[in-house]
Amino acid sequence: MPSTTQLNVAVIGAGAIGLKHMEGFAGHPSARLAAVAETSQERGQAAIDEFETAMLFQDYREVLDDNSVDIVSIALPNHLHAQVALEVLEAGKHLVLEKPMATNAVDGQKIADLAKEKNLHLMVGQNQRFTLEAQTLKRLCLEGRLGDVYYAKAAWLRRSGIPRIGSWFTAKRFAGGGCIYDIGIHVLDLALHFLGDFDAVSVSGQTFSKFGPRGLGEGEWGKSEKDPDQPFDVEDFASAFIRLKSGKTLQLEVSWAAHLETRDVNGVQLFGEDGGATSNPLKLFRSENGEPVVEEPELAEPLVNPDRMQHFVDVVLGEAESFVPVEESLKAQRILDMIYRSAASGEEIRL
Ligand SMILES: NC(=O)c1ccc[n+]([C@@H]2O[C@H](COP(=O)([O-])OP(=O)(O)OC[C@H]3O[C@@H](n4cnc5c(N)ncnc54)[C@H](O)[C@@H]3O)[C@@H](O)[C@H]2O)c1
To answer: What percent of the chain is modeled with pLDDT above 70?
Structure first.
């Protein structure tokens, strides 16, 4: 039965992804987009022109002072995630936070601890888990269709997809990192979700920066301003090998820019004892009477609302369990830290 409760939502950051948050919330019958906080007058105005129920604030603190706001979503540059998340939770609002959770696991832990202390819902919006293909594959894993899944390859490889060279995305002090934080976290999270194990025991990683510093490999994403004098000081390629507590292993490959045949490859490949699978496109590989069989499974009934913002509203209403548990996001954030530490030291990092 649809809930009669109406929840008021505020979105902080009306850039490329903040608009998607607004679209999601606006489509939930029990949510009302009440406020948008955005420092750019132009982007903020464009957002409230589109979503007419919302008031515009330039300072997000005004939203936090508003007692009628129940849920806040943060769609800000990465360096602001931890600081604003702590303020949102301190103000007693439920929080859905863009990936990466923070720019290091220490800050991630502070956010998780405060949400627990305040008894508030917190979810990192890992949208790739929510697609119908990913939910179908998760269901097939849970049903044991692949048998024991012991290895995963996770890749997001773009040929020319650096988001706005000179924007916050390509400066370490604002982004925390490059392609790992921007797109690597998506496929890392997805692979760990399918494997059902987020506990890394060792990580060996390497990062490179081969295109951005030469002004090459730019793609179309993001809305924030560019500063031509800002140095490009993040990675545009990374690879990592991750051993998990269960003995399962995972290979991660990420590029913002690279010499590739295809423009964009993004997904997870699973290796199970009874079958294999790719998440994108969704396919199953198994053997029948010794012959290889390739299946394209029908999309299953989703486990949760495929829109992550709408799912979070369901969670706050008590109608769903969070599909992205905070503990998993924190463990994924620890793996990101380990990749950077391994790349910096040239050594495998063990827990
Ligand atoms: N889940 C996904 O698929 C996905 C995709 C892209 C980006 N992201 C994440 O979303 C976040 C935002 O990315 P984006 O692509 O929308 O970036 P963006 O640069 O397009 O938008 C960021 C917006 O935040 C605004 N802003 C900056 N400081 C502010 C402040 N103090 N108060 C209010 N507004 C402020 C900027 O003016 C800008 O409009 C990042 O953390 C990124 O990693 C997630």
So the answer is: 99
